[in-house]
Design goal:
By secondary structure, the chain is of the alpha/beta class. Helix content is 28%, strand content 19%. It contains 8 helices and 9 strands. Strands 3-2-1-4-5-7-6-9-8 form a 9-stranded mixed beta sheet, with helices on both faces. Helix 6 crosses helix 7. The termini are far apart.
Length: 286
């Protein structure tokens, strides 16, 4: 069903005003992995987020979009959930989530919306081309069956050596996420590169180059602690970011908030903004 238009949506005036759980340590790692994909040999592919809430991580990811690429966001937003357990989860954790709120937040920092798929994440593998995505953020349902399906879709959509970030893989209230992620390590050849307090980062490609470069980068960071352990026969980098200094947050594009207006439930949003729109805000200068 289309989002309601009965109430105005106020856009945030600062990145910190966008509600969500996207901590500085993970902002640093998103920046590191996505920036690394620009280095030679440059990694091609699109960007994908499964589960957007109010757009905090999507706003961040959208900054790294390059010309000719597509950024897709898939979320139920305010559509009915496909089953009773998922509906209960939505009512409990995401009662304030609407597509209009997401779009207002995103448009406060970017000229154009990503492609928005307002539907269960189970449809995403049918909407995108296999092997087309270089970076995927999995942050939708916490229920094992749904996360398992999201991981299968992520594997199908991953380009060679794509990075996939999994949220809430170790939270006590999300045991289904942990079971699905570690199950994928055991059965699908997913290789985890590193973990933080909330996210796991891995690939179905070769993890060694990224792991070696990440360890070198971590030695230069005085605000991050890291250690390495052997897990499931491979080294795993553990990162603690209690003192992490996040990249400079993006400023809003306009002083006045904008209402995104009505949109269809699953239609294509306008084309993404050209990459580099906020690069100076993050200090990358590319």
């Amino acid at each position: 069903m289309p989002p309601t238009t009965s109430a105005p949506v106020t856009a945030p005036s600062r990145f910190s005003d966008v509600k969500g759980w996207f901590w500085p340590v993970d902002q640093l790692l998103f920046d590191w992995f996505l920036t690394r994909q620009d280095r030679a040999p440059r990694q091609s592919g699109d960007l994908l987020e499964l589960g957007a809430y109010l757009g905090k991580s999507a706003i961040f990811i959208g900054t790294y979009l390059r010309p000719g690429e597509e950024f897709t966001v898939c979320d139920l937003f305010d559509s009915p959930a496909p089953d009773d357990p998922n509906s209960a989860e939505m009512d409990r954790s995401y009662a304030t989530l609407t597509r209009r709120a997401f779009e207002a937040n995103y448009l406060a920092f970017h000229e154009r919306l990503p492609t928005v798929v307002q539907a269960p994440t189970s449809v995403i593998a049918t909407r995108l081309t296999p092997g087309s995505c270089r970076f995927i953020h999995v942050d939708a349902s916490h229920l094992y069956e749904h996360v398992h399906g999201d991981i299968e879709a992520a594997k199908e959509l991953s380009a060679p050596d794509a990075i996939v970030a999994f949220d809430d893989f170790r939270a006590e209230h999300c045991p289904g996420v942990a079971a699905a992620v570690w199950g994928a390590v055991a059965t699908t050849e997913l290789k985890l590169i590193c973990i933080t307090g909330t996210k796991a980062y891995g690939t179905w490609g070769d993890p060694e180059p990224a792991r070696a470069e990440l360890l070198e980068w971590l030695t230069s960071r005085t605000d991050l602690w890291h250690g390495v352990e052997e897990v499931a026969g491979a080294p795993l980098i553990r990162i603690s970011g209690k003192k992490a200094q996040a990249p400079t947050p993006p400023p809003p594009l306009r002083p006045e908030p904008r209402d995104p207006g009505p949109t269809g439930p699953t239609g294509q949003a306008p084309a993404p903004a050209p990459r580099g729109l906020l690069s100076r805000a993050f200090g990358r200068g590319r």
